[in-house]
Amino acid sequence: MEDNKPQNPYAAPTTEVLTAKPESGAESFIPGGRSTSVGQGIAWVGQGWSLFTQSPMIWVVNIVVFFAITFALGLIPMLGTLIGYALFGFFGGALMLGAHAQHNGRPLEVSDIFAGFKAPYTTPLLTVGLLYMASWLALMILMGTLFIVVLGVSGAIGAILSGDTGALGGLLVGAGLGTLLVLLIVMAVALPIFMAFWFAPALVAINDMSPIDALAASFKGCLKNILPFLLYGIVFLALFILGSIPLGLGLLVVLPLLFTSTYAAYRDIFLGDDGHA
């Protein structure tokens, strides 16, 4: 019989070997991200829209809860704003976890907005939030310092202290160019902050990266995709303008879309998933 034929112990196996499929989110992770085509800036918005329309009301409710908490904290002078920045990691991570669960077939839930406060995400997402708070606090201090320097150099501060209101107007006009320079410097510093924190909550919550590594990876991923993000930014600028026209009600769609499209961009850049089968 054929079964009794001698077998070559060194022959390659003829039976199909089944391997376990890696868990979604880790199967093709690209640590530094990959470069994508310019058109992906629009594709991310389309993929985000598809994700949003699967559970539109839940997305709207979760975004309203997020911004209601942030607004309430903002009513506390100074301290509330800093706390709101510190909570960025929790809520940013929660929204990415919700999008990730929805992408993997689990329906989105209202409770997902608080997922970032649960173990094992608490400590790393809190660290992301605290770093975010520290970054913006440093930026505000820098902006305030530069404005004081500009007013001092222009002589406006001296006019204010001496009570010379007649000369003050002209000095303030003269300080206009310096003020513009300050704003340009602040924007130049703010851009790397946005880049470092854009994907950090997703990388920490979904891929279990350390906060510092996530910030570095997010910055690299954004840097590799400057042109797609430029197109993406133009699209969202138009959407924000349109969404603000009907009493701002359109923002109830635009704001969730901002987060769902961010998740789509995260998958494209860091998982190599451009949304096509």
Instruction: Please give the largest β-sheet.
Output: none
Unreliable spans: 12-26
Portion of residues in helices?
A: 55-70%
Overall pLDDT score: 85
Topology:
Layout: H1 40-54, H2 56-74, H3 79-86, H4 88-103, H5 122-154, H6 156-162, H7 165-174, H8 176-198, H9 200-207, H10 211-223, H11 226-244, H12 251-271
What does this structure look like?
With 277 residues, the chain is mostly helical. 69% of the residues lie in helices and 0% in strands. It has twelve helices and no strands. It has helices at 40-54, 56-74, 79-86, 88-103, 122-154, 156-162, 165-174, 176-198, 200-207, 211-223, 226-244, 251-271. Helix 4 (88-103) packs across helix 9 (200-207).
Quickly describe the structure:
This protein has helices at 40-54, 56-74, 79-86, 88-103, 122-154, 156-162, 165-174, 176-198, 200-207, 211-223, 226-244, 251-271. It is mostly helical.
Characteristic key phrases:
277 residues, mainly alpha
